[in-house]
Fold:
Amino acid sequence: MDSDPWVIPLAAASCDDQRIGGKAAQLARLQQAGFRIAPGFCVTVAAYEQFLRESQLQRVIQMELGRKPFEELRWEEVWDAALRIRNRFSAARLPLAVVQSICRTVRTLGSGTPLAVRSSAPGEDSAQRSFAGLHESFLFVVGEEAVLESVRLVWASLWSDAALLYRQELALNPLRSRMAVLIQEMRTEDRSGVAFGRDPRKDQNEHAVIEAVPGPCSGLVDGSVDPDHWLIHRAARQVVTFRPGRREGPAQNEPLLQPQDLESLLLLLDQVESELGWCPDVEWTGRGSCLTVLQARPITSVRHDPNDKRPWYLTLRPDKQRLQQLCQRVAEQLIPELCALGDRLAAESLEDIDDAELADCIQSRQALLERWKRIYWDEFIPFAHGVRYLGMYFNDAVHPQDPYEFVGLLRGEDMLASQRNRLLQVLAQQVQEFPELQRTLQQAAHASSAASVFEWEAWASQLSALGGGCQFLEAFQTLLRQFMDVAFGGLRLIDNPAPLLRNILELASQTNSSAASVESREEPATQELEQRLLDAVGAARHDEAREVLRLARLSWQLRDDDNLLLARVESQLLRALQVAGARLKVAERLNPDAEVRADAVPMICAALRNPADAPLLLPAALPHPAPLSPRASGETPRQLVGQPAAHGLASGSVRMIRGPEDLGSFHAGEVLVCDAIQPMMTHLVPLAAAVVERRGGMLIHGAIIARELGIPCVNGVPNALDLLQDGDRVTVDGYLGIVTVGVAEFRLELE
Structure:
């Protein structure tokens, strides 16, 4: 056993052996010094390296992290790369010799013994850096197969998004990262917790901090159990403060630890610090003579460092309990509240209130918008991680060949954008049924392109006299009122219905055979995917799997809806500003050509409240400038490389969508090129032959919608809006993530 290169028992490990990583080395040293440590062993770095060699995963890692410079990758792109790496790790075969060594050693501990499987990377939990929480840990693992799977996932967690980003922050080369795995018997005593040799929030070293929970320490670590908390003067052995944890039951306020238990922990801190030479953060379980050290690491952060992003990286790892808490608050309280707010603001009459009241109204709406933007970042975005939680859960259980197969489980969610798009299809069908209505709408669309002001009311009166016109107008007004009262790019979409008319005409002109060549693959049905997940996890975990599905589907639906609902509140702020601007112009207190935008709120409100002040002068509204030619040198790129976000192959002409003024210019069969698909513009995607986005990520709106519709999508293309221009002929390869400019070579070969 001692000569085994893949497995080293803790009792036989050398405390300076780099093959077992920092966490295991510290426990080995404490065990040799006489501390009570749970029996176990370490799967060495050499085993990990052998796994990489036999599976050729190092090439996979290099490819995934080499698509473009790491510092240029957005977090979504890093997460995608991490998911693909994790999926390959999960599917790769473990080396037979490593499997035999691990299984043989597990049997020495007892095949039915619950085990803890934890990371122990070289350099992890050192005095210079802490990777606490960034790598995977698995508790109560029983059986050889379960241990092998846990080892595989601990290895894969070396390449998680959080771990990759943290290594970049520390200027560590991710490609040089290695991982050992610590496996120990689970100790399930009646008390567990953490003990800090000093208060990690302070500079001073005289106070220790002890936290305790009933049962295993995992409840404290994952936040599911509120701990008892003591602040103790180490030298005097006196409790400075005590805060009981919030627990149910008659004994909820009784301390979990008695004075002698606290003394045992203080003595443990003294002894660990003396042995290891640094002030420790100790994870422990048990009491008195049964006190067992689970982990010991240095306290690396004395006070909050604004440059330390590790706490933020930790929030990027979805936690089911946190998602459940957010789900209840977001779905049951925040989204209904935001929806009701938009309805209330839209129903308020602004024309009849005086100037001071209008100023108050504008400022109130601005404050509401800022409040909801904070809620968006603090709660809506974290809840969106429910989709990513599903991705890891599904892939770990099913081991699909396609790491994004789980996206099929999100099909058909009834989002606001989906409701809007269905109504657009209804309007397009009405246009197809009535040729005269279609001709008149085409005339209106042409007139809107030629005129500086589109007289929609005049055209509406003409439409009402045509066959199908009244029905069309009623549905169109519903569309505007329910779905287009949103802000996009600082403008209210409801103020300009002409782009929507042109979009409806394009939908009506579509036939079953698209002008662009599109190749896409059949996706498994949602019910089939759900059944595969249930079969993979087993009957005992069906309720758990269904809960993960529920959270993911709600998080995807509400993550889309919250954008539109927030944009509606912004639209109502802009409406109030428009009323104020018109009023000030009539009173000659604002220049007639002024453009009143959200950044003018303080000046507009001051002008409303102080009529005696000099007239307000704001910048004039300017027409949307034509984009500067990105290819003044005359050079045309041949290929652009991004991320394959939706499978398929399609060719078409480029149409740039930079803002709301471009929405009406999109034609069926064109390739939609933009910074990122927003929920305010997803109705264009069914018209597109393909989608190209600068922003990267498999779970951003454009990627999921394109995949659902079977439209190829390549995203994460740097400078896509600068390197392409309207009219370019491109071929979008959603399999390889390549955009070819000009006639595709395979077509040249056929001609």
